[in-house]
Amino acid sequence: MPLIQRLCIIGVGLIGGSLARILREKGEVGEIVGIGRGEANLRRAVELGVINRYETDPVGGVAGADLVFLATPVCSIASVLARIAPHLAPGCIVTDGGSVKGEIVATCEALMPAGTFFVGGHPIAGTEHSGVEASFASLYQGRRCIVTPTAATDPLALHKVVRMWELAGSEVVLMDVEKHDRVLAAISHLPHMVAYALVNAVGGYDRFEEGILPYSAGGFRDFTRIASSDPAMWRDIALMNRESILEMMDFFSRYFAELRSLVDGEDGAGLEDFFARSKEQRDAIL
Amino acid sequence: MPLIQRLCIIGVGLIGGSLARILREKGEVGEIVGIGRGEANLRRAVELGVINRYETDPVGGVAGADLVFLATPVCSIASVLARIAPHLAPGCIVTDGGSVKGEIVATCEALMPAGTFFVGGHPIAGTEHSGVEASFASLYQGRRCIVTPTAATDPLALHKVVRMWELAGSEVVLMDVEKHDRVLAAISHLPHMVAYALVNAVGGYDRFEEGILPYSAGGFRDFTRIASSDPAMWRDIALMNRESILEMMDFFSRYFAELRSLVDGEDGAGLEDFFARSKEQRDAIL
């Protein structure tokens, strides 16, 4: 028997579509109903075999689902849940894929009717592309997925969400929401802030020293790929994880200032040590 | 007739080895003599067919060469040239691959005996690997190579060096040395400083929030790959291009501070605009 009888995916893009693909491939889902605002994208998702059928109205779409996956932009997760919550089937589990958890988990838990269950989640996976066309079954293979139970989380609902991500190929890690938001600020949100600022700085310099970006080699391109990420999504993340991001930006600035002072002071030994410590840590995650 | 009769490559690693491979492949060099300090690496270079023979003594090695390519670490280019200069054949052209040009070009030009010619160069190519095993014939294919003539540069020597890089597959750009050093500070040296500082900051945070680096997804890995670069090489670059690097670090810090203030002020429109400007510029160099 499949893990999920009727899965409802709200937002059939890279994240939602990739989960749908792997669960269908594994035979772990009876039926997948896709919900979204763009009907062309939903039709394409049916053509591609990612979902069985679609609804553009989330209220009707969630009817009879035993699991709902909220894969919408991070800022609309709570508002979408507010709309569907009264229409969830008894026993229904709702989980999400938002990359900020604190605010979302608190709001969503409070919205759930009695006898339905919310479990916050965040698969650490993605590419710079979006939309159902960009989705693929192995997106989650070998990647971590953070699931964030609270004191209010139902143990059976937690178990089912964990099992779903394991079946998708992820290594599931349980973490409290505050730690999740600090960890993500460090390993994802800060690097994005740095990359966006770097490209703007080099591009800004470009204006009075015309055409320097084309000289950039592979290193710069790799380094700045994440600056191609969706501006609206990152606006929302910056707003929703503001405190942790500010903390990490200031933390980074202290290291950057230390390095500046080593360069300024022509401290060869200090520079080599600074670079070697970084290389050692970077090589450890290769 | 090949472009070069006897090419002497001092430093047979990724940069020197890759140039040797492509010029042999194209039949544009009569003989290649490799010079280096590590005899095992030089023997391997002969076995791999990268060079014809080797010498460990640079003075003897440059005898009879019509072109010498200095592919040693950036800080030793001038000192190696000081040693070989009195032994160069009449008409010999010396060029280098150093990623900082101002100091090197001025010092090297002054060292050249009458009737021999120096031309500064910098192929914008590389990987995070080093050594002759890492070299490959297509390293320079489609990449820019900056050649930095001065008022003292011999036109025929310049022409030969440009032709050599074109035969290696590069798009050659002529640039004055000061502009080269500012451009490289922007597109390469600054990103390395940022990446090294970022990994140290995240790693430093890691110490009191154990084991967060393994949660990092592909974005972080791509973004920080350049922090795996050789610490000694980057120490030398930071010391040799100090002024331009400090200028760019300060330029970056202004943009980073602007972004911090947008996050702090919860300025959604400003954040989206900041990210969109960056994305637009990044996408233009894809």
TrEMBL record, chains A, B:
Domain Prephenate/arogenate dehydrogenase per the UniProt entry, residue ranges: 5-286
Pfam families xrefs: PDH_C, PDH_N
Coiled-coil annotated residue ranges, if any: none
Domain of life assignment: Bacteria
InterPro entries with a match to the protein in the record: 6-PGluconate_DH-like_C_sf (IPR008927), NAD(P)-bd_dom_sf (IPR036291), PDH_C (IPR046825), PDH_N (IPR046826), Preph/Arog_dehydrog (IPR050812), Prephen_DH (IPR003099)
Keywords, in A-Z order: Oxidoreductase
PANTHER family per record: PREPHENATE DEHYDROGENASE, PREPHENATE DEHYDROGENASE [NADP(+)]
Protein name as it appears in the record: Prephenate dehydrogenase/arogenate dehydrogenase family protein
Organism: Geomobilimonas luticola
